[in-house]
Design brief:
The chain has about 625 residues and is an alpha/beta fold. The protein is built from 16 helices and 32 strands. The chain folds into three domains: about 5-30 and about 75-240, Phosphoenolpyruvate Carboxykinase, domain 1 (3-Layer(aba) Sandwich), CATH 3.40.449; about 50-65 and about 315-405, Phosphoenolpyruvate Carboxykinase, domain 2; about 245-310 and about 410-610, Phosphoenolpyruvate Carboxykinase, domain 3 (Alpha-Beta Complex), CATH 3.90.228.20. Strands 1, 2, 5, 6, 7, 8, 9, 10 and 11 form a nine-stranded mixed β-sheet that branches. The structure holds oxalic acid and manganese (II) ion.
Length: about 625
């Protein structure tokens, strides 16, 4: 007999679905999450007591907990992530595919009895402000209390969502298990539960709008509202319903006269999206406020403009490299009420990570992310520095605790978008900023987004550009060629007043490896030009790749010594030879797509013509 820890809601389809999964997974108990603080802190207490989490020093970091995951369960597992559409070609060339009938059979066998000895938590949640007409409701079943508390931070959980669902409202069903049954009264003994890699599956079923996840307790694999629902499933819904679900930050930019523009930006992972969303402008009188740091859902308003909401409720940020210098607002966001994962623990009960720029006491030892004692300067047998925090260590922080959060960030109607930015890490060729010549040209730019990878990061030649169209490579729930077509179709909507499209590159270097642009708060100078261009102002020259600012159009007041006339000239040159090489790389990239829209092939041909002149 499965214990019912509290009453089920009055929604027959939802209750039947939960019971069906309970029958298969055989948990000890079922608990319906209500989203309250009592629930959140109760689960934190339980996990601290059982050794899965450590409570941080409540004076230094109030209401915070630290988890260490299994060393094999530290990131999204793209190789085990599937778009199980009925036809393989609908998943397209960029996704892993398995026939949905076959995959469900295989996964059902894994789910059989997988929750023995555990509680099955049912989490009703809203992506987006509860009741917003852009928001969507999901229900996640999970056997991980860590996932429950993360869903509290990252989404809106609980009874208010059930009220919107009513007796028969639609929801996206999401099932998750860590895949580690506890037999005969066994417990986790403080060890993060998960399944071996070959048993992990992160499966999206686009036709039936379902998410099935098994074997991982970590981040985007397990917090199913984020990448699985808000991107992979939402892209399919957006395609069918005429809206956009994008891997984009949203920021509010105010000029010294108090005029506001809203900007979204798509950048591949590890290109500073969270930093840009929380930027502190160095230009006097300018203000950046955060609406979201990872995902934007956009729908047309009656006025023909695209209105964006941030479907999330928190930030699941990468900790290493985050400091009061690189991102003060992120540091302040995680000053309290935060879940840390795979960070190091200090003797004083606070967290620490590489690049936090907080000095350790002389001789201070830490507990590293694996639970071992870590000494300053420690090296491994090969002489490499041992990291105290995992490079993908994370903080799950509440958006409301971000000092830069915009007062209207939860506006259910969304905010009207003026500009889209695309960018990546490109040490050469791509200028600091340029503007597309048209919507179609902007879509072309988005489809060619890439970031340079180092030989150390991946098993590839240094200088190789990893193409990540629209920063959506691991997140698009259908054929990428069709997704490009959806972007083109958005541009043809009658009466549409579309955002302007820009490409930015904060990462230019000189031939001898010096950064040409200081980045961080100084990026406000580029945002200023973008703001002006949205108003039909801002000096620009037309080049074969698009509109580029004239060298005096970027405000360098106060940094003329840091970014010299020669530097800005280099940042804003059109590098014809570099672009010929880029063109060849884009041609190669485009060969991958079986359903490349003709309009993009035309854009490529037109670029080639312009470069040949
Ligand atoms: C993320 C990612 O974690 O894009 O947001 O990988
Ligand atoms: Mn992301």
């Amino acid at each position: 007999m499965i214990k019912q820890l509290n009453a089920a809601p009055d929604h027959a389809k939802l209750v039947a679905w939960v019971n069906e999964w309970a029958e298969l997974c055989e948990p000890e108990a079922i608990y319906w999450c209500d989203g309250t603080n009592t629930e959140y802190y109760g689960l934190c207490d339980e996990m601290v007591k059982s050794g899965l989490a450590v409570r941080l020093n409540s004076k230094l970091r109030p209401d915070c907990v630290l988890f260490k995951s299994d060393p094999s369960d530290v990131a999204r597992v793209e190789a085990r992530t599937y778009i199980a559409s009925e036809k393989k070609e609908d998943a397209g060339p960029t996704n892993n595919w398995i026939d949905p009938v076959e995959l469900k059979k295989e996964m059902r066998a894994l789910y059989k009895g997988c929750m023995h000895g555990r509680t099955m938590y049912v989490i009703p949640y809203s992506m987006g402000p509860v009741g917003s007409n852009i928001a969507k409701i999901g229900v996640e079943i999970t056997d991980s209390a860590y996932v429950v508390i993360n869903m509290h931070v990252m989404t809106r959980v609980g009874n208010a969502v059930l009220d919107v669902l009513g007796k028969d409202g639609e929801f996206v069903p999401c099932i998750h298990s860590v895949g580690k049954p506890l037999e005969n009264g066994a417990s986790d003994n403080g060890i993060w539960p998960c399944a071996p890699m070959d048993k992990k599956y992160i499966a999206q079923f686009p036709e039936t709008r379902e998410i099935w996840s098994f074997g991982s307790g970590y981040g985007g694999n397990a917090i199913l509202g984020k990448k699985c629902l808000a991107l992979r499933i939402a892209t399919v819904q957006a395609r069918d319903e005429g809206w956009m679900a994008e891997h984009m930050l949203i920021l509010k930019l105010t000029n010294p006269e108090g005029k506001v523009k809203y900007v979204t930006g798509a950048f591949p992972s590890a290109c500073g999206k969270t930093n840009l969303a929380m930027l502190i402008p160095t230009l006097p009188g300018w203000k950046v406020e955060t609406i979201g740091d990872d995902i934007a859902w956009m729908k047309f308003g009656k006025d023909g403009r695209l209105y964006a909401i941030n479907p999330e409720n928190g930030f699941f940020g990468v900790a290493p490299g985050t400091s009061m210098h690189s991102n003060k607002n992120a540091m302040l966001s995680c000053a309290k009420e935060t879940i840390f994962t795979n960070c190091a623990l200090r003797e004083n009960g606070d967290i620490w990570w590489e690049g936090i720029e907080v000095p350790l006491e002389p001789g201070e030892k830490l507990i590293d992310w694996k639970g071992n004692v870590w000494e300053q300067g420690q090296v491994d047998a090969d002489g490499n520095k041992v990291k105290a925090a995992h490079p993908n260590a994370r903080f799950s922080a509440r958006a409301k605790n971000c000092p830069a959060i915009a007062s209207n960030w939860e506006d259910p109607n969304g905010v009207p978008i003026d500009a889209f930015l695309f960018g990546g890490r490109r040490p050469s060729t791509l200028p600091l900023v340029y503007q597309s010549m048209s919507w179609e040209h902007g879509v072309f730019i988005g489809s060619t987004v890439g970031s340079e990878v180092t030989a150390a990061a991946l098993d590839v030649k240094a200088g190789t550009v990893r193409r990540d169209p629209f920063a959506m490579l691991p997140f698009c729930g259908y054929n990428m060629g069709d997704y490009f077509q959806h972007w083109l179709d958005i541009g043809k909507v009658e009466g549409a007043k579309l955002p302007k499209i820009f490409c930015v590159n904060w990462f230019r270097k000189t031939a001898d490896g010096r950064w040409l642009w200081p980045g961080f708060g100084e990026n406000s100078r580029v945002l200023k030009w973008i703001f002006e261009r949205c108003d039909g102002e801002g000096k620009a020259v037309e080049t074969p790749i698009g509109f580029m600012p004239t060298t005096d159009a970027i405000d360098r007041s106060g940094i003329e010594n840091e970014v010299t006339d020669a530097d800005i000239a280099e940042l804003l040159t059109f590098d014809k030879e570099g672009w010929k090489n880029e063109l060849a790389m884009i041609k190669e990239h485009y060969k991958k797509f079986d359903r490349l829209p003709k309009a993009l092939a035309d854009q490529l041909a037109q670029l080639e013509e312009r470069l040949a002149k």
